[in-house]
Amino acid sequence: MTSVQSDESTEPQKKPGHPVEPTSAPTPRRTMSNAARLGTGALVLLIVLCGLTLIAGFLNKDRCSGPSFDSQGRSEPELSRRHTGEFCYSDIAFLWVGRDINNHVFPYIHGRLDEKNMPVGGVVEYPVLTGVLIWAGAILATNDAQFLFFSGLLLAPFGLLIAWQLGRLSRWRALLWALGPPLILYAFHNWDLPVVATAVAAVYVMHRGWGRAGVHRPLMHRAIVAAVLLGLGFALKLYPALFVLPLMFYVFTGGRGGLELPAGKRYDTRGALRVAGVAAGTVVLANLPFAVLGFEGWKASFVFQGLRRADVTTNSIWYWGFRPGSDNPGTQTLISVLSPTLMVISFAVACLIGWRRYKREGTYPWIAVSAAMLCGFLLLHKVHSPQYTLWILPMFVLMNIRWGWIAAYLFADIAMGIGIFVYYEAGIFGKPDGIQDGLAAQAVVVGVWGRAALLIGLFFAFLAARSTVDEEADGEPADQVASRPA
């Protein structure tokens, strides 16, 4: 993959089985017409549409709030049944009680796992920066409705930022994000918008740079900023760390067409290691204060996730694939081994296929490989929460895959996102012995296995696709390419 598309007639000559040799000047490529770019007005419209979608998403979740509240600020009456039966469940409102969020305890510092391995004392089951966002959203809140509202105010700007970045990168295809059903279903389901913003921002700085228009940013400068963003993403929800390895390969091979390799070098090993070091350093700096001030509480969030079982709440292939013996301790041990092992294998396969494309095309397809690695993670991790669709949605914008893939995935996601809560309601409030044959169970099966099959197909579709990123030089406007000195 190249991060932009080029006319075949302007590509450098390739030797079979070898990458394109760097040249002394940038490879000529088509510049994009002004009509093809999103101007200021179009970007404003895109952001307004995204804002309206976010409002709809918030109103959907807010339907479960109030009208009265108990002594702890929990909505009444029958909150659990409303959450499942009315499709307005939100982890944000649900976790108001049970993690000391309602008591405004600063996260991790005084926390631990209790004798049942449940977080107490301010521990939340997320990495540290998400924990801080959760605490910040609760500062002014006295009940779960206010907590949802203030959290929404914190999260919404990240959703708008993603829309702006995707619009600048991939033009009107960004409507997939701005108007997509997942944004209504999941924008305020959990605290995922900030982590998605860091992942998209890493792509943005790599291919648009930052600051004053027309200023070219060297590959290494852009890669360092992207590595910081991916490290921050790890400290929010872990998954952006997957993209560090493809980014390292992109720097290792000199970026687009190998044009930014150090003089006389075939590969930039030092640059790739710098990317890894910066990402790791960012993770350490974000986590170190919490690890020093409250090690037990900091460690508890990771231990809790590591001990989590593949059960009906995880929505993954592991629970549904091993039924009815999913609850067997031996099965859980097997899953704990198979899941990470197969994930690592999928990551290696994605990087290898990306390397073969580099050999053919001269540019390491780091966005495509990142998207494929994300598919491997979503498919094989023992937890697949519904809002993870927000993670892959920008990849549908950034990669030029067929619309059939996207429509099918969104259909499977809606089946899961709605069906799972009807399934829960039947199990909790209905007749558990009969829910296996109901419509809700069928919707969940379609969601789980349909999504799994699509993730396998998307793994290879992403690796074969080209990026939709605008046809400009990395970090530099297209109209500057021709005039830039060699």
Comma- or semicolon-separated keywords:
single chain; 486 residues; mainly alpha; two-stranded antiparallel sheet; two-stranded antiparallel ribbon; 4 strands; 2% strand; globular; disordered N terminus; disordered C terminus
List the helices and strands and how they pair.
Elements (H helix, E strand, L loop, with lengths): L39 H23 L5 E2 L5 E2 L2 H7 L5 H4 L17 E2 L5 E2 L7 H11 L5 H27 L4 H4 L2 H6 L6 H16 L10 H19 L6 H9 L16 H25 L1 H13 L9 H6 L6 H33 L4 H15 L8 H10 L4 H27 L9 H26 L22
Helix pairs in contact: 1-5, 2-17, 4-5, 4-9, 5-8, 8-9, 9-10, 9-11, 10-11, 10-15, 11-12, 14-15, 15-16, 15-18, 17-18
Keywords: Membrane, Transmembrane, Transmembrane helix
InterPro entries: PIG-M, UCP010361
Pfam family, one: Mannosyl_trans
